[in-house]
Amino acid sequence: MRKLIILLLVFGMAPVAIGEVSTRVCRADGNTPLEPNDPNFPFKYRDIMVGTWLTIIVDSNIAEYWSGDLTIEGEDMNYGVLSARDFNVTADDWEGSHFPAAGAGAQVVTYEQTGLYGFSLYGHSSAVPGDWFIIDYNAIAVGDCDVGFYDHDVSWEEPIYYLEFSHVRTRDFNNDTKVDFADFALFALYWQETDCIDPNWCEGTDLDTDGSVDSNDLALFADYWLEKTR
């Protein structure tokens, strides 16, 4: 009988959540999530236009000291850029990139080596669960860029995962930070053009760069209707 009671207590207990520090990627507003391409691959995100700004937020459900990094390495540095906020020269701290929940002594420091750039993140022992850090990300060229997320409790040498971004040609043809009727008007000017060539591609309206502006390009344009690049 005693064994049965023990088994009931063990298997009847609610599962205990494991503490962790993790990331989420949002639009520039810091609130609107960027959707993954496939829920089975949560860190591989939907394509974004060149010129798009995102925010990478590091949050936690633990209350203790923590350190980690967000970095871009090698050729990926040609396609994406990380930046932090409000640098305090005296403290050598990007003080605008850590939230109060990270603790009174939290710090964000530039991390730079040959072929690598990013930021080291230090939570304080006075940290509480919540959003701890925010780092900005900008897509600067067509191509792929992976941002490594390091948790020093796990490894100093290897990221625990990569945030995977793929950049496509902008639909914001007039560079006013949004895709709207002004961009559609420019697109209409080149409709059915068949002599689009590199590097201009009919002012960018030949989105699939096949030499003509047609229904394929219209579909690609519509995919980003009313999206913002900043």
Could you explain how this protein is built, in words?
The chain is mostly beta strands and 230 residues long. It has 2 domains: 21-168, Immunoglobulin-like, CATH 2.60.40; 181-222, no CATH class. Helix content is 12%, strand content 36%. The protein is built from 3 helices and 14 strands. It has helices at 2-12, 181-189, 215-222; strands at residues 21-27, 36-38, 41-45, 48-49, 53-60, 66-73, 80-83, 87-88, 93-94, 107-113, 116-123, 130-139, 143-151, 161-168. The strands form 4 sheets. Strands 4-14-13-6-11-10 form a 6-stranded mixed β-sheet, with no helix packed on it. A 4-stranded antiparallel β-sheet has the order 1-5-12-7, with no helix packed on it. A hairpin with a 2-residue loop joins strand 10 and strand 11 (116-123). The protein is elongated, with a radius of gyration of 22 Å. The termini are far apart. Residues 1-17 have low confidence and may be disordered.
Question: What's the helix and strand layout?
Answer:
Blueprint: H1 2-12, E1 21-27, E2 36-38, E3 41-45, E4 48-49, E5 53-60, E6 66-73, E7 80-83, E8 87-88, E9 93-94, E10 107-113, E11 116-123, E12 130-139, E13 143-151, E14 161-168, H2 181-189, H3 215-222
Parallel strand pairs: 4-14
Antiparallel strand pairs: 1-5, 2-3, 5-12, 6-11, 6-13, 7-12, 8-9, 10-11, 13-14
